[in-house]
């Protein structure tokens, strides 16, 4: 399944009663498998959990650890870029040259590499003196 079809399909399941902003995310792993996530909000923390974080959690729970590509889709005037926390979560598993595609439901597309999306990322190499 394409990342686009997977992200579109999972977006339908988004639980976003507070923002009314549904987001779908799909990631491809080193083995070629696709994992998906949608945003899930709750009354105490209305921002809830981002779609990207859901997809990453599903991937990690299956034992996989490498993101080769990801796609995020929402109904927005311009492609929705992952929040700061999600950039760090993606960077944990995505190589610098992995392509992150951001799309609107109308087809506007923005593609960036992981390194472009999170320049100067904090990595475990920063802790090499410990
Ligand atoms: N959201 C995502 O799921 N991914 C993003 O990249 C941006 C924002 C969600 C979180 C919240 O449920 C809603 O969009 C509004 O912030």
Give an overview in words.
By secondary structure, the protein is an alpha+beta fold. The chain has one domain: Cytidine Deaminase, domain 2, CATH 3.40.140. It is built from four helices and five strands, in the order H-E-E-H-E-H-E-E-H. The protein has helices spanning 3-11, 51-61, 84-93, 114-117; strands spanning 23-29, 34-38, 67-74, 94-104, 109-113. A five-stranded mixed beta sheet has the order 2-1-3-4-5. Strand 3, helix 3 (84-93) and strand 4 form a beta-alpha-beta unit. The N and C termini lie far apart (43 Å). The mean pLDDT is 97. The chain binds tetrahydrodeoxyuridine (THU). Residues 16, 19, 21, 23, 39, 41, 47-48, 50-52, 72, 80, 82-83, 86 line the site of tetrahydrodeoxyuridine (THU).
What key attributes describe this structure?
five-stranded mixed beta sheet; 5 strands; 130 residues; binds tetrahydrodeoxyuridine
Q: What is the structural class? A: alpha+beta
The CATH class designation is: Alpha Beta
- Associated small molecules: tetrahydrodeoxyuridine
Number of helices: 4
- The average pLDDT is 97
> Architecture, CATH level 2?
3-Layer(aba) Sandwich
The strand line-up of the biggest sheet is 2-1-3-4-5
- Total domain modules: 1
How much β-strand is present in the residues? Answer: 25-35%
- Please name the CATH topology: Cytidine Deaminase, domain 2
Our Rg estimate from Cα atoms comes to 14 Å
- Tell me about the largest β-sheet: 5 strands, mixed
Share in helix: 25-40%
Tell the overall outline: globular
**Can you tell me the residue ranges where pLDDT is under 50 for at least 5 consecutive residues?**
none
- CATH superfamily assignment? Cytidine Deaminase, domain 2
């Amino acid at each position: 399944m394409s990342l686009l079809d997977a992200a579109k399909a999972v977006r339908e399941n988004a639980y976003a009663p507070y923002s009314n902003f549904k987001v779908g995310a799909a990631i491809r792993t080193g083995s070629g498998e696709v994992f998906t996530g949608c945003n899930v909000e709750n009354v105490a923390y209305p921002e809830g959990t981002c779609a990207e974080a859901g997809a990453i959690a599903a991937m990690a729970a299956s034992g996989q650890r490498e993101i080769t590509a990801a796609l995020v889709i929402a109904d927005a005037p311009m492609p929705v870029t992952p929040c700061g926390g999600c950039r760090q979560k993606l960077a944990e598993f995505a190589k610098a040259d992995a392509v992150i595609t951001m799309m609107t439901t109308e087809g506007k597309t923005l593609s960036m590499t992981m390194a472009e999306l999170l320049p100067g990322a904090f990595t475990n190499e920063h802790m090499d003196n410990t």
